[in-house]
Amino acid sequence: MKAKIPVSVLGATGTVGQKFVRLLADHPWFEIAGLAASEQSAGKTYAEAVRWRESVPIPDAVAKMVVQRAAPPLPGRIVFSAIEAELAGAIEQAFAKAGAFVVTNTKTHRMDPDVPLLVPEVNPAHLRLLERQRKERGWPGGIVANPNCSTAGLVLALAPLHRAFKVEKLFVSTMQAISGAGYPGVASLDIVGNVIPYIGGEEEEKLERETQKILGELKGNAVTSASFPVSTHTSRVPVIDGHTETVSVGFARRVTPDEARAALEGFRAEGKVATLPSTPARPLEVDSRIDRPQPRLDIDRGNGMTVTVGRIRPCPVLDLRMVLLSHNTIRGAAGAAVQNGELLVVEGWLD
Amino acid sequence: MKAKIPVSVLGATGTVGQKFVRLLADHPWFEIAGLAASEQSAGKTYAEAVRWRESVPIPDAVAKMVVQRAAPPLPGRIVFSAIEAELAGAIEQAFAKAGAFVVTNTKTHRMDPDVPLLVPEVNPAHLRLLERQRKERGWPGGIVANPNCSTAGLVLALAPLHRAFKVEKLFVSTMQAISGAGYPGVASLDIVGNVIPYIGGEEEEKLERETQKILGELKGNAVTSASFPVSTHTSRVPVIDGHTETVSVGFARRVTPDEARAALEGFRAEGKVATLPSTPARPLEVDSRIDRPQPRLDIDRGNGMTVTVGRIRPCPVLDLRMVLLSHNTIRGAAGAAVQNGELLVVEGWLD
Amino acid sequence: MKAKIPVSVLGATGTVGQKFVRLLADHPWFEIAGLAASEQSAGKTYAEAVRWRESVPIPDAVAKMVVQRAAPPLPGRIVFSAIEAELAGAIEQAFAKAGAFVVTNTKTHRMDPDVPLLVPEVNPAHLRLLERQRKERGWPGGIVANPNCSTAGLVLALAPLHRAFKVEKLFVSTMQAISGAGYPGVASLDIVGNVIPYIGGEEEEKLERETQKILGELKGNAVTSASFPVSTHTSRVPVIDGHTETVSVGFARRVTPDEARAALEGFRAEGKVATLPSTPARPLEVDSRIDRPQPRLDIDRGNGMTVTVGRIRPCPVLDLRMVLLSHNTIRGAAGAAVQNGELLVVEGWLD
Amino acid sequence: MKAKIPVSVLGATGTVGQKFVRLLADHPWFEIAGLAASEQSAGKTYAEAVRWRESVPIPDAVAKMVVQRAAPPLPGRIVFSAIEAELAGAIEQAFAKAGAFVVTNTKTHRMDPDVPLLVPEVNPAHLRLLERQRKERGWPGGIVANPNCSTAGLVLALAPLHRAFKVEKLFVSTMQAISGAGYPGVASLDIVGNVIPYIGGEEEEKLERETQKILGELKGNAVTSASFPVSTHTSRVPVIDGHTETVSVGFARRVTPDEARAALEGFRAEGKVATLPSTPARPLEVDSRIDRPQPRLDIDRGNGMTVTVGRIRPCPVLDLRMVLLSHNTIRGAAGAAVQNGELLVVEGWLD
């Protein structure tokens, strides 16, 4: 039996940080060796520092660990980051410079031309940007990012359609869960019995440009973002976990619902990606029931890593309408980063 | 002081029926003279028959009225109908045949070519279909319909844009309140903390074809539906009252947000429609705050008859994106029908 | 027609402050002449300074008023206070010293032996403590308090029972609305689909001791708190407005539900209190329907000033069980204070 | 490896029936051999007949099983029943007469003097009533019941306190989840953003008398219900799963919070009950955090079989206040019945 790979977590006390702790606690390859958070938390045990909101107790081994300052070095060569965007630039770069691979859920570096923005089932080849990053920046480590929570589910559902039929136009209207805003996040007076047709932090812009980058083409050491226009509306609804997205897509040719369904159902992770512990057996499931997917019933498929697609039907304006659902704090955040960390391992970056 | 006009309500015990009772109780022109509901309710007082769900008590005068069977005659020449769709065909026609003007919220006759589908601020001229209806059907009365709850708000916001810039393509994704499904309607286990990406009863088809009919052109005695394609996604969210709709529109030419805002803000009811008690001072309000409109804060504008539009911005796929909100049981149901009844009065149909 | 009485509002930008602005905007006796809030707000217009959460727009006249610092002098002799508890001590006293009557919703001075803790229908005579307060403190003005939001409804329902049958033991378990915690207050991740069996700020202690003080006896210039023991459980539930309380009461003798109902239904405001604009025609309503009162249907009775009591039945442990509901930000906060201000007027304290 | 024991489920398509299917699908001792439901469902496969509302898919083996009529014989000697109360009398008796052990969650037979009303950790000896039942009724099988969902959690928390200090008075106010009402159950218009201070079906009476029976004393072949008075208030809140109860208890002598905590924390299942697969390692957990337990965070402890107690503190009227939480469809329904079935096995009733 191989020893586990030690990893650290930056921003470990926040909502995504807690999800990292939960997912890593039982991980077959990784074990938590270091935790870092803000100055106020540093020096306390994790149990003291965190306002734990998961529905299982803090893992025993982690509860007693002492939270450190968010500066290198931290134990292990992989550092999962859920640090605040305003601080992420300097801190994540410092870790990369110090030799760590920063696997980040934070937006700061996502659109850097030399940072891989990865969904392993979709664009694993983009990991090669890391070579350019190391060369240009001269770092012994590096930075790898996963997309925004609302982008993660969308690109998974689009990937097989884009490969088979070439996406030319895209409409998305989201209904996003409150956990996407962190804690305390959305005030209850704002969202109980209500809809807020706006998500702060340039959500719509992120959804547009990150989708284009992930579905973009790698040529040599550069990714050219896909050029199809993306129109997004992002709204907050009183749901705990699970982003629902209504989507209309136009393709290079007319595509029937049956063709689309076949492409979606046939989608599988390929090569080494299929062997990662966080890769679900089916990254996409199509549910043909008239009123699915629904967050309360469908987010836990594939341990929160499977995206569910439903209501596939023709679109009177573009070609195809559908609804998709993904778990925003797993597939859309911590789970995505853990899967990226696993990809770094199998691709030999830690050797 | 003129005597009030006696009116009756069909389907008076349901959710929309109750809203009729509430709106008519204080109406300056109308007074409730008759109430009808199902066989089980007939013979009981209204207070006994109804499971009253409004937040004000049953109006005293109405509470003691005896509920009648849903067959002519009922007092008054105007009969407001919130009767179930399966029963509405025969019953509403019987009333029209017996000389009543049936002002209905039910879908059954909406798409009949000789039935006016009216939003008074938008297409008052369509009322002329009533002449054809009476001629062809030989009825002394007639049937006038208002649109489906999700259509009502949409066509109001589209009307000034269509007039000014000609709509050519339309994409709508709705987030609809539970009151739209009546009572008991949506099970709480289905919607608490959840989104259902589907509304029964062909909601999407209704939203598409009713929008096209209302924005259609009256030539002679026929309405030609507008021909622009409409793509809809309709979802249910845990909101009590208020349908929120994210909308993208393509026009015959590029339209800027400023042009659109000017058209929306300049929109007013015209002619006699402006004098109706239910017509709000401003049928449309534009709210420029980044996170508005919101159901919990904005549905009561204009006593529930004003539609609020927000987040007007360019659309990368079509021309314009925006969000709109309307009160689904007032502007989208009972209030709409009451306003139609008022229009019949000022247009002299009761004389 | 008499000129209106100018008043000011302290803490005008918070949740209760906004409710003050809304209630005072249409008040028949008072008009807002000054607004004060924190240092960051001072100098801005009210519209700029406030994050307005009411469902009607900011009253025009108020929107343009410039917010001042929370220090005397402010216009008018009545100052309604919704200021934070930590600051209230010094600031409210400064205003009283400067000649103003501070009518406060803040907890700071409620239990001071020389401060009247008033519910006008219940203990108007306690206003006489103001004489002692002025004498002992040497202030030209004074401080008058209303109780905590969960206490207000409770003491109204208890008052007629205590008068008629003498309360000897009291159990209360509350289900409190999120608006009671102000804004941003309760995080949505904490309360959507959840119950929190705890309210911060010593809610249970306040509910116990304030109930005893209000139902206490005024002898000479002192109030002796009622001595019956009070046992409380306070919980937060995902309701916007309206505190529901399940109550069991033991009396000096066995009391039947019919006797209790008669006492509750017979309860009326007396003397000058009955003439106050904020005093509802019926401070208490008994609803005999098996599943009432409910926040969503019953909080607006008497413009939010009427408390609804239901489910009156025997108690196997004490004597009587019942459920009560009150509007926590009107009867339990701003409305209560406005009513206290009205009482000061009719009792001649401003002359 | 022993073959599994075949069991059947009555009322398999309802909310509790679905939970039975889910819990039995992975059970180490039992396997589902038969499913029965209403006449409309009989003859269909389970997948066709059920409106599945669990968040995991229907177990494959069960999905294809054909639903049978609810009449003997069904496969296996243990029949778990979640049948409607109106039908349960005749049907459950028919099964017992035909030789089956009916382990029922339905209320119909709970208070029969010869039917054990069991919570295995609390009153396993009551199972002996089965001997009397078989003798008096002459059945080869028998009926064993678990309590109502709100009683299950309460008696677990009371059991160690009653043993140690003797309960003399009890006050309970519940906040119950919507899943307790089955499907479709509570209308969303009734409960979104609301509290209903009433649960149908004589909930309060059941909670009172079942608590007394379970904590009653077995002498010879009869159980004498505990005689302490129980006062209950039962309310519905917008929570999916998990009943929260605020409790005040009076004892034969003054009991401190520390004494109570020690008794609660020391509570363990005894003898054979400790070996049952459904018995959690700790039937009770005490959580000392000020705002716990909370349904959303704490119901899954012990796979839904552990009851969490918090906020233990003195009571000014009786002796002790506390808050408890239990999973209403597991500990309060299907899980409780499965545990009772396990008890029948280890006690040799199937041999």
Summarize the structure.
The structure is a homotetramer. Chain A has about 350 residues and is α/β, with parallel strands linked by helices.
How would you describe this structure to a colleague?
- 4 copies of one chain form a homotetramer.
- Chain A is α/β, with parallel strands linked by helices.
- Helices cover 30% and strands 23% of the residues of chain A.
- Chain A has 11 helices and 14 strands.
- The first copy, chain A, has helices spanning 15-25, 46-49, 60-63, 85-97, 129-137, 149-165, 188-191, 203-214, 257-265, 295-298, 330-346; strands at 5-10, 30-37, 68-69, 78-81, 101-104, 142-145, 167-176, 217-219, 222-224, 230-236, 243-251, 284-287, 307-314, 320-326.
- In chain A, strands 3-2-1-4-5-6 form a 6-stranded parallel beta sheet, sandwiched between helices.
- In chain A, helix 1 packs across helix 11 and helix 6 crosses helix 11 (330-346).
- The longest helix of chain A is centred in the middle third of the chain and has 17 residues, at 149-165.
- The radius of gyration of chain A is 19 Å and the shape is globular.
- The model of chain A has no long low-confidence stretch (mean pLDDT 97).
- Chains in contact: A-B, A-C, A-D, B-C, B-D, C-D.
